[in-house]
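Quick log. Single chain, no ligands specified.
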Amino acid sequence: MENQFNNGQSALTILRIFDAPLNRVWEAWTNPEELKKWWGPKDFTCPHSEMDFRVGGKYLSCMKGPDGKEYWSTGIYKEIAPFEKIVAGDSFADERGNVVPASYYGMGELPLELEIEISFNELKSGKTEMILRHSGLPEGEMREMTRQGWNQSFDKLEESLKII
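-> predicted structure:
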């Protein structure tokens, strides 16, 4: 069965290996205080993050750009396999968590809901392999901007995992 978020295209997929144990990488995704340390591209901060981390629960996070502009995102957790996988919806939102179109932030056309899947694998060396699949993004500039944003966020994640 084809993923409803695939739209006939492959998902944006990013594989990263972190020099940190699985439990630390998992916590970076599941603890709002840890997420605040790395969420958002380079030079962005995350002043707000809340999670009801359970299937059917909702998250709401804010990325704040160097110009002070805030970008809110929300979604519902669809699948959680502890220390293995997280699947959630991914939508732009206003500060109250209401889903808004990408045009609300002056961006091009995107579906109202995308999907993210994060898989985790513990490696023998005490490192963790993480694979992100972001489904529903159309080909083109927005997809490439999203890839850059994720990679910059994961660079920040890597740095935050070094701090004990």
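The radius of gyration is 15 Å.
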